[in-house]
Each structure stands twice: as structure tokens, then as C-alpha cells.
UniProtKB/TrEMBL annotation:
Entry protein name: Phosphoribosylglycinamide formyltransferase
Enzyme class (EC, first level): transferase
Stated family: Belongs to the GART family.
Pfam families assigned: Formyl_trans_N
Documented EC number(s): 2.1.2.2
The keyword Transferase appears for this protein: yes
InterPro entries tied to this protein: Formyl_transf_N, Formyl_transf_N_sf, GART, GART_AS
Keyword list, A-Z: Purine biosynthesis, Transferase
Amino acid sequence: RKVAILISGGGSNMVSLVRSMTGDHPARPSLVLSNRPDAGGLLKAADLGVTTAVVDHKPYGSNREGFEAELIAAIEASEADLVCLAGFMRVLTPYFVGHWAGRMLNIHPSLLPKYKGLHTHARALEAGDTEHGCSVHEVTAELDGGPILGQARLPILSGDTPDTLAARVLPLEHRLYPAVLRRYATGDRTPILLTTADA
Ligand code: GRF
């Protein structure tokens, strides 16, 4: 299988995914694609020897489908048949989501279905939750909806701030996403549940 990874920023999840696709792994990265020309992850991908591309969303303004048609063209030119969203910060329309239905994953820093959307760590703390974590799900038209394919959970510690919590969740993301992709690339949708003990 060939995988296109879409990023908007530093791409730490992209790096973990690329590094995992070696040896007998059924997939290989064919493209790292960013909507932002200045995304730090583009340099990291190039260092890892992965082809990169940029489709800047700004020139498209409110023409989301025009932007997404360019994304599809770039992804298909790389021969990818799986898409991993990894810190990709653009909302995708049903057009793009429908085109990749059943072939697109996303990682979200919360225990979905809790805390869809942004500022997930602050919201978990404000709610007084005792645990938190991250989820990998198949992408559907509902933002951060779709079937959950993996979760990693950890305890919230007294004194945690959104930043300290995010810093503990990120390494779990880096373990969970590659584990889910490896299984998903074989067509297996059995959910993976990790705890910090696994980490
Ligand atoms: C992470 O918190 C991830 O959960 C979210 O975007 C943030 C940055 O990810 N999807 P990355 O370092 O760009 O992979």
C-alpha cells in the first residue's frame, strides 16, 4: 500500500508514521503534503527521503472544493491509496471525505467521542477528567467523528496544565498512529487500545 500523509505544522506524527513503514510493513509513504508552504514537517519529510508537495489553501479563499481537487490530484499523482491526516488543520468537505471514504485516517488528541474540535487538553482539565489521551479514527464528513480504530489513554495528574498534558499525550500519539496504520493497511479494522503501560 502507498500512504500520503497530510500535515500543516511540525509533523511529529508524520515522522513517526514514516519511520514505522519499513521492513515487512505492508505500506510505504509515497507523499507528505502540506497546505502551508512553511510547515516544518516538510523539511523533516525531505530529510527522511519522502517526496513532499505543497498545496497552499490561501489562494482558494472560500473555494474549499477547488483546494481539495488540487489535494486529490497531488495525492493520486503519488499513487497513494491511503491518506493519513497528521496535524492537518483544514476542515475537509464531504467531497474530499467521500473521495477517500474507507481509506483515510486522522489522529485527534482526545478520547473520542469526547472533545471533538480544538483545545482538547484544556477542555479535559476544565471538566475535571481523571484520564485523557488520543484517538485514531476513520475520517467521515462529521468533524472528528467516524469509526474509532485506536485509543491510547493516560492519567491526568494533579497540577497538569494543557501544555504538560499535551506533552504527555504526543508520545502516545506517536505509538498509537503507527500501530493502527500497520493493522489498517492490511484491511483489519479491529480497534487498538493502548495504556501508558504499553508506552
Ligand atoms: C498534535 O497534538 C496532534 O494530536 C494534532 O496536531 C498536533 C500536532 O501534531 N493532530 P504534529 O506534531 O504536527 O504531528
